[in-house]
Amino acid sequence: MLKKILTRLRELLLGQSPDSESGAPSATLADAQNFTVSESYPIPVAEVEDSDDPACRTHYVQCASATGLHRMAYHEWGDPGNPKVLICVHGLTRRGSDFNVLAKAMAKDYRVICPDVVGRGESDWLENPMLYGIPQYVADMVTLIARLGVNQVDWLGTSMGGLIGIFLASQENSPIKKILLNDVGPKIEASALRRLGDYVGKPMRFKTKQAGLIYLNRICAPFGDFTPEQWMAYNGPHLIKDGGEWILHYDPAIAKPFAAVTIATAAMGEMMTWKAYDAITAQTLVVRGGQSDLLSKETVAKMCQRNPRARSIEIPGVGHAPAFITPEQVDLAREFFSE
Fold it and tell me: Domain 2-16+24-338: which topology?
């Protein structure tokens, strides 16, 4: 049954079968290949090294796709025997380390699990890039939860992570009991899709890590005002040494299904997402960045109207998406999940 559901979701959300082919976004930008610190952006960069937190444990789970097996990494905080599990899932080009601050704060009460969705971070890349989509991600999360050995979980999903949560929470007997949707809903504004299309999947290379951080900090500027040290901790893990240069952590091919979406398939995907959202029985909190270009106030109002178990809160002065690294945002999550 799950296989049929995921296959149908793939067809509707991507408008293609797993065997479809599509070209990746153009990567002809000369400045992308030669990005240097000389480009002036207002966000400072801290000259500090990345450091691993000994409280965080990294594991791997083997997942299946239509073309074979792949490993998905997940990062664990807190008591591994704690039956209370919080799964935090990142956005399109991000990775599980985004939740380090939140996970550390929640680890006293929860076993916190922060996966690197396939194609990102320490997880494998898929052989067929057209499988990068919600159906595959949902299937991988089902496998992850089975590995954790628990019957129920709470869920915090940012952007793409929220969409994964919507479809998983919509299933009959879903393990999700509470879900925080961070700046995402069934309707995604076209302006945000255009913005994402400007950079997702372009094979960036940087002469220095500092140059890479400046680039990432620029893209993430709507997330909020952070110190140089916070920016380093947040974006540092997204850069990987490749020979004498630095590259981004994710498979550029994650953009191929994104680029293949048409107006018709996008409309069908939105309809399917609303249908999934309407089926959610979990207690739901919709968080919107006050300046978000992805989640409109109108969509939030509609989400609360259609789901009697949903409520919303808006974080002023933040765009897409709140990072949940400030004390106020961490407290917001803690209060919701402790209710």
Answer: Rossmann fold (3.40.50)
